[in-house]
Amino acid sequence: MSINRMFALSTERSNQEGECLQLTNDDQTMLWHQRYGHLNFQGLNTLKNKDMVVGLPSFSKQDITCTDCLNGKQTRQPIPKQSSWRASKVKGWVYLLLNKSEALNYFKEFKTMAEKESSEVVKCLRTDRGGEYVSSEFINFCKEQGIKRQLTTAYTPQQNGVAERRNRTIMNMVRSMLIAKEVPKCLWTEAVMWAVYLLNKCPCTKNTQKQIG
């Protein structure tokens, strides 16, 4: 070692010419997987096979591993798939609350909209036991409107499986999108709105004939 703490290395110059190899992949499966908020590949094929999206290409690969999905779709424990009842026409709405105290006003807004669009009345509301749902104002409003309450047992989200599975699907998409594009976490609300919009446009087992609009 020299006085300036550098090591001298003896090397031989190679006479071989270097080569640079480049691989071009024209498959767009991963691109459309990301565009649709990391929708599973079976869902993408359903969109294509049923001509539900104009300009969607065919997907030749089904065994692609998306590392962003692996990071964004991890779960703590499984939620049972079966529930006692669920709607035959599935659609999702999302309301972003700054404070839990806003829950009642947003529920009133949702109730009015849902009843106007469906010509039906809200008869039952199933929620967890969050403080926003068991406040005296919320309870009294439901009594006045004749809405039956179904509250889950504490720390048992499985009893509200339909909502919990939808929440998990939405947040899986949100985390995957944020990780994939390195988007700041402060934009997660925009990602939630986009995920719900995409899910409302994608096929589901209860209604595979939904049109993209």
Major sheet attributes: 2 strands, parallel
Main-sheet strand order equals 1-2
CATH fold category name of the domain at 93-213: Nucleotidyltransferase, domain 5
Rg computed from alpha carbons, rounded to a whole number of angstroms: 25 Å
CATH superfamily membership of the domain at 93-213, which one?
Ribonuclease H-like superfamily/Ribonuclease H
Beta-strand content bin: under 5%
What is the β-strand count? 2
Count of alpha and pi helical runs: 7
Helix content: 25-40%
Structural class: mainly alpha
Mean pLDDT: 83
User: Distance between termini?
Assistant: 72 Å
Shape: elongated
Query: What is the CATH C-level name of the domain at 93-213?
Result: Alpha Beta
CATH architecture of the domain at 93-213: 2-Layer Sandwich
SSE string, helices as H and strands as E: HHHHEHEHH
Uncertain segments: none
InterPro entries: GAG-pre-integrase_dom, Integrase_cat-core, Retrotran_Ty1/copia-like, RNaseH-like_sf, RNaseH_sf
Protein name: Integrase catalytic domain-containing protein
GO molecular function: nucleic acid binding
Domain Integrase catalytic: 125-213
Summarize it:
The chain has 213 residues and is mainly alpha-helical. Helix content is 39%, strand content 4%.
Protein described:
With 213 residues, the protein is mainly alpha-helical. It has a domain at 93-213: Nucleotidyltransferase, domain 5, CATH 3.30.420.10. The protein has helices spanning 29-35, 41-49, 67-72, 103-118, 136-145, 161-181, 188-201, and strands spanning 124-127, 148-151. A two-stranded parallel ribbon has the order 1-2. Helix 5 links the parallel strand 1 and strand 2 (148-151). Helix 6 crosses helix 7 (188-201). The chain is elongated, with a radius of gyration of 25 Å. The mean pLDDT is 83.
